[in-house]
Amino acid sequence: xxxxxxxYKHLRSPEKGLIKVQLGPGQKNYLEGWINVDANMFTxxxxxxxxxxxxxxxxxxxxxxxYSHHVIEHLPDLQLHFNELYRCLKPGGKIRVAxxxxxxxxxxxxxxxxxxxxxxxxxxxxxxxxxxxxxxxRGEHMTILTWSYLNELAAAAGFKNLRLCxxxxxxxxxxxxxxxxxxxxxxxxxxxxxxIIIEAEx
Length: 202
Ligand SMILES: C[S@@+](CC[C@H](N)C(=O)[O-])C[C@H]1O[C@@H](n2cnc3c(N)ncnc32)[C@H](O)[C@@H]1O
Description:
This protein has helices at about 1-10, 80-90, 100-110, 125-135, 145-155, 180, and strands spanning about 20-25, 35-40, 50, 65-70, 90-100, 160-165, 195-200. It is α/β, with parallel strands linked by helices. The longest helix is centred in the first third of the chain and has 11 residues, at about 1-10. S-adenosylmethionine (SAM) binds next to loops.
């Protein structure tokens, strides 16, 4: 997969035109007209088979927009990832990055609001067990995403104009985050979203 990513970057990745990339579409979130990149071509539908723990399979300053939804929490080195997003973006390029909402999860845990948490992936009765499910997802998630942490990572990579967006309804980049994209953002409680989303610009 490492070699495949490298070959794609040097032999096939586009150099011209409008380039919109989704990282980690999974089974249901494939975006038509985008370059969809995923590590799992069996359970997911993708255009490029690559492991995004490695450097991203794009050349410097070629991509207009990156989108990812519930993917970066699976990565071991988020600073490397934000640096890579920045490297691949054209000047003025943009990102929308989303994942489990650590800020709201902590608030709901403190409020003892067990109903906010689901019993996925493991059946848990206690709020502690449900909190653990949400944050670590049986060891699939490697980190906890909060606004201050994402802000720090993105700013350190060089991003500017960082903002927090509500799922489904809010974007500063409607030219990229159109109805097709927003239709993929599942959310059950709009006022206390399960997904934290940041947008930023290079
Ligand atoms: C929880 S699913 C999210 C799918 C979809 N974006 C959504 O919101 O429903 C995580 C996706 O990220 C992909 N993924 C996880 N780690 C990855 C990696 N290191 N490189 C590429 N894709 C990865 C998985 O294969 C999976 O498709």
